[in-house]
Amino acid sequence: MTQALSNAALFQPIELGPLSLRNRIVMAPMTRTFSPGNVPNDLNVAYYERRAENEVGLIITEGTCIGHKAANGYARVPFIYGEEALAGWKKVVDAVHAKGGKIAPQLWHVGSIRKEGVEPDVSVPGYSPSGLVRPGKEGGIAMTKQDIDDVVEAFAQAAADSQRIGFDAIEVHGAHGYLVDQFFWEGTNQREDEYGGDLVARTRFACEIVSAIRERVGPDFPIIFRFSQWKQQDYSARLANTPEELDAFLKPLVNAGVDIFHCSTRRFWEPEFEGSDLNLAGWTKKLTGKPVITVGSVGLTASFIDEEKHDMVDASGVATASFTELEQRMNNDEFELVGIGRALLQDPEWVIKIREGRYDELEDYSKQSLMQLV
């Protein structure tokens, strides 16, 4: 038995407006493609229920596609529209609440990452044979103003439906090279209208989404917004190269109604800008005053992605030094919440084992773990 972390800040309750959490641990969204017919089923219910009963503070679901014809990019991904899918999510929500947990769906539109012929909307034009659109390579179809209005409405309707069936918050996926991020990123946003231009102008689409959601769900329903510097297409990409640029990027989103920022990095301990040890979440909180979620290889001893080969590598055990740094950063008020991804995918009891110092009971993280159903 290693020293328990039960008194650590990570395991203390927190209230963020109407969102009351039993600890600071957030299950990060992870696509699993285990929803045949795009409907959450009993396996989905059991998967989230097990994490809730094992004391995850807030669960953010896998990306769930909004009701727009081009939103989906992968087979067997759950939708957040239609009576059957919403009924499936209602079962998930009820199961999580019965175990004392809180849950938010991640609302998702893949944009030009969508490959041709993806069900169920096979007639929607394809965008890129590889599923990735890179700067300098022609690909994708520029959205008309009507397209933009339709997507904004689809996000707003998904949020309203999520609130109606009992979710505790929603998260907008604005990261990792998907649709919202494609508008942020200069390399993929070459528009010459009001949705293109400088960094602030490129936030317009996201701000319209957030504003429409806020109008639909009212003032007290939490809106989480996930963003990243890196993209699937380019791990070194950056939206903001300085704190000043990051400030300019974040202010319109705050004004639109974001309550919590989910700041996606690959390693939480890495400083975001020279001259400061603050990571992306730390800078975001400093600049906005909003609560933030940090994320990035928490609890792993090796990187999930090899930067040179862009390939999967094994990571085993618990990086106890990273928990020491995590605790220090939380005590310094750098961030309120910590997103955990792969460790919770592999072990639904991870939170309790870490809290109680039962590190010897943790299984090695491996590629095989990704196939675990529940």
UniProtKB/TrEMBL annotation:
Q: What is the scientific name of the source organism?
A: Thalassolituus oleivorans MIL-1
User: MF terms per GO, please?
Assistant: FMN binding; oxidoreductase activity
Q: Which Pfam families match?
A: Oxidored_FMN
Alphabetical list of CDD domains matching this protein: OYE_like_5_FMN
Q: What is the lineage of its organism?
A: Bacteria, Pseudomonadati, Pseudomonadota, Gammaproteobacteria, Oceanospirillales
Q: What is this protein called?
A: Oxidoreductase, FAD/FMN-binding superfamily
Q: In this protein, which residues make up the domain named NADH:flavin oxidoreductase/NADH oxidase N-terminal?
A: 10-301
Alphabetical GO CC annotations of the entry are: cytosol
